[in-house]
Amino acid sequence: GWTDGRVVITGISGLAALAMLVQVELRAKQPMLDLRLFKDKLFSAANFVQFISQAGLGGLIFLLPLMLQLERGLSPLQSGLTTFPQAFGVMMMAPLAGKVYMHLGPRRMMMIGLFFTMVTSLVFVLVDNETNQWVVRGIMLSRGWAFALTLIPMQTATFATTKPEDVGRASALFSSIRQVGASFGVALLATVLTSRLVAHSAQLGNPATRNGALFAFHDAFFAAALFSLLGIAASLLINDRLAASTMHRKIPVEPVESAAAVGETAEGLVPVGGH
Fold first, then answer.
1. How far apart are CA 20 and CA 24, in angstroms?
2. Residue of 72, 64, 50, 82 lying closest to 179 (CA atoms)
């Protein structure tokens, strides 16, 4: 529980270490993680959306194999073959997502992708111990399609206003945020699952409490959907005008601090594709 002494001590220690890290990195001339890059509004907003989306994605992909193996009795190989269509879905949708990005821009694409990610998370609330594995594979495939619609605009917009000399450090920070977000999602949804197992008087892998465990997983899947809902709200922070240099069309630009980074012209339009 959150009030357990070990949780409190390690939690406070972790926050103190994080504060020290921020202080050191902001003072270092050659920081390991250049936190100054977060002054870029688009970079900060895109990473915030990434943190939330990765939390939901990583958390659910942690929960599902537990359910398949401990409650349905699948082997690790069978479980992997049931969840892998998500990766296949990302590969299928990525080329199309790149084309759609040019017309919709990052904000609307992220919102659409996160909306369908939320829908697929909610669909898992209807999955029980008798649901056909091909249905689960279909949901994971759809989840991959949805994630591609989020991933492509997120990766593109994140670096839209980053200076060429800062791309390496920005990429390192982007990767770190992704890993931390996924870890956060796993930790939080594992906590939700554990607490709901207690609430339903159930134990993982115990045939006598199978129904209670299923309800606990459903509660955790619902919590995963809330991550996507929060991500949709966070996507409103994305300014398509700042990412206009990554799109094959001209977008009117309002006066903003980073307008020079995307190349505002005297006519108030952003030249796209270097033209």
1. 6
2. 50
